[in-house]
Design a protein that fits this description.
Radius of gyration: 32 Å
Number of strands: 14
Structural class: alpha+beta
Distance between the termini: 82 Å
Length: 514
Amino acid sequence: MQHITGIQRNQMMLSSLEDTITADNPVRFIDAFVGTIDLEKLGFSIRVLKTEGRPSFETAVFLKVYLYGYLNGIRSSRKLEKECLRNLELQWLLCGLAPNYHTIADFRKDNPKALKQLFKLFVSFLKDADLIAGETIAIDGTKSRAHNSKKANFSPKKIDKHLAYIEEKTQQYLDQLAQNDDHENSTTITNIQAKIERLKTNKINYELLAEQLQTSGEPQISTTDGDARALLVQGVVVEVSYNIQAAVDDKHNLVVATHTINRNDKNALSAIAIEAKENLEVDTFTALVDKGYHNGRELETCKNQNITTIVAHPEQGKSNENGTQPEYLISKFTYNKETNTYSCPQGQTLTTTGRWHKKTGRTEESGYMFQKYRTPACKTCPVKDQCTSRKGGRELDRSQYANAVEENHQRYKDNPQLYRKRQEINEHIFGTIKRKWGYNYTDLIGLEKVNGEHSLIMLVYNIKRSINILGVPDLLAKLKTWNSPYKRKILLFIKTTYLKLITANFFAQPKVSC
């Protein structure tokens, strides 16, 4: 039986690195893209040549390493160092260079802002390449586990629980100590005293944490990563994590804006929507967003920025056996804009005195102004017990953002088919990044650095998807015609270097005396 046989290991071969890389290999686009950009102008820290010691690697080398690594599911700096030595694609991309893992890791930590700028720059390239329409954008968020365990995250309630436990255990040890004093067991006494001292130290540490919480005004504190927060992931599951925000264009499902926050989605809509508008350089677009983002202040901000929102409207009010019934929920009351009144399901009119009241929140930003609406007809209403349990009758609050909320709600009702596209546009992106690639946690500490890593992940996602759409040759062709303000002036660089070499050689020639 015949089998396919390989070549002899000691056989000599005449070939170059160029021969090993096909024309449609993604590394060709990485090389061309990085070579096109003026990295210093974009904000990357440039390594300068020192007068003494070993010369440093060019900044572009590390950017190529990380783009290749994240594109292939490798983000450990130690693994990337190994790949530089054994991976033919990386050897071609880096021209045989192999940086140390520590130097590779430093690049990612030192350039978070520049990596975010690089993501934005690639969005402008995608727009110039006609891969982004910039008309309908789906916005959503997902949680990424932080480099901080639950045990290293504390709230005032958790600290009080630990302090109460310490008090209880200390008292138990003191009682044991009193009993052992009678029996004069020196070994047992020493062990108990050591435990009491350890509890005293722990108590001091928890009291310091409580003091830090009170000073900062934050609801919680993390000791490993100070910016990480315990966030609700799904249902009642809580993880110490970050919240990745992403705005996705509907033409080819490419990410047009992204940033990371350490809070929930409630107050996050306007920031990511405005960022998307700036990146796309458009006057307006339609944003499709789920009900977790519904917030009157955020909707008002988007409206002022000429961003059309279609945000799912959460159910207002709850019905129960002893209180408001479904027929008398707030959604059943009709607002009259001309008279500034409400009409109830029984045909009565609720009016306001015009006085504004202030609703306070955890922060000054979360507070808002509102007016109260009442009617004296509630006192004699035959269905009062089905409408409200308040003795004084039904009372409605209308916030200063009510107009923006109602306009959004009307658009939501008028565009059910368009809103259904939201999940199709952006949900699979998080599935690809977290489930398929395994990027469901961050390697870095601190909000700024985490922002840089997540911008890199979204950039790589866009690169991979655009390659799948157009292919490497067509994408390279569009890169050549791309007119970017951050484009590297290669010809000028080559001419300047060439002139310097000629001048140096001329003056270095030995002079012959006659």
